[in-house]
Design a protein that fits this description.
5 helices, Ferritin, 155 residues
Length: 155
């Protein structure tokens, strides 16, 4: 049970981030986001909560695995994880709350950079944790293209 505690704690933290993000998006999706012109590769709205829930679970497991390791770079790796998580939680209020695709683009680019640093740090500690974050990196890369597309199509 003691070995599972860090994983459970990080999963709950990541799911809480998702919940906070969801609070800032619900009203804005109907009133502001739906009328925007979106790139043709935009998935249906229903895909986002499913994808993010899976990603938050994987993220929490990955961070928990790193936390359990007694590695000299563990604190730095978890620090990068928390930095990228802060950018993750910031994106929704900026993009949806402020109705700012350009601001969202700035935040997601910072998120992408912090996520790459997190992956590099995790790779040195746990290959499993690294691979658990790869789908998240792919999704954030995809979300970045969507954000760029929305910026371009809605000047």
């Amino acid at each position: 049970m003691r070995r599972a505690l860090p994983i459970v704690a990080f999963v709950l933290l990541c799911l809480a981030v998702g919940w906070v993000s969801g609070l800032t998006t619900e009203a804005a999706i109907v009133a502001w986001y739906r009328p925007l012109v979106k790139p043709p590769w935009t998935p249906p709205d229903a895909v986002f909560p499913i994808a993010w829930t899976i990603l938050y679970l994987l993220m929490g497991i990955a961070a928990g695995l790193v936390w359990r390791r007694r590695h000299r770079d563990r604190r730095r790796a978890i620090g990068w994880f928390l930095v990228q998580l802060a950018f993750n939680v910031l994106w929704s209020p900026v993009f949806f709350g402020l109705h700012s695709p350009a601001g969202g683009l700035a935040v997601i680019l910072l998120l992408l950079a912090a996520l790459v640093a997190t992956l590099v740090a995790f790779f040195a500690i746990s290959r499993t944790a690294f691979w658990l974050l790869v789908p998240y990196l792919l999704w954030v890369g995809y979300a970045t293209t969507l954000t760029i597309g929305i910026c371009a199509l809605n000047p």
